[in-house]
Known about the structure:
Helix content: 25-40%
Largest sheet: 7 strands, mixed
Oligomer: single chain
CATH superfamily: Vaccinia Virus protein VP39
Number of strands: 7
Amino acid sequence: MSHFIRPCPSRKDESTIDTMVYIEKFIKDLHPEKILDIGCGDGYLEEKYPDRITGIDIEPDRVADLKTRGLHNVQVGDATALSFDNHSFDMAIARDLIEHLHIEQVFAMFRSVLRVLKPNGVFVITTWRDCQIFWDKVDHIRPYSNKWVRNLCRYGMPDFDIYFEKELSAGIPLFGVLKLTWLAHLLADKFKIRVDHGIIVLKKK
């Protein structure tokens, strides 16, 4: 049995998670032909969009596990030193990843993503605020909020513009048990309950 560094949600739950709903909306609306999924985890996107997405993960055991499921669009890779040619992708995604990196690694990842994105390509990032639920996860290093990413672009990464940003809620406890996750997120978003993470999309100039 493989032991992974980062736990991932079950694939069957992925489509209902708020951040994934937004990511799939961007894929639908922006029609990117080539997408890089950084820290692909359990391979939900790679399985759903096999002809458009290349997934990388730093954990060899996780990549090997994905390949046993028939996913050949995945490979071992480091977010801070992407091994792809310049201008290779229309979109890059870093979902549930940035919080696992030290600050110097985040800077390196942004530079690497900037290099492999085509002009006008977009970088979709999910973020966390500083809150107790964040620190309760043993594999988290530090939170990076939407505001932090916005400030990074303003003062250190001027080749990115902010395309979209939204604060998101973790939902409402027990709604998941009742299979009402969609309603929990809808209500939590409307009434600003448990706002602890977000999504921010950057566009390369």
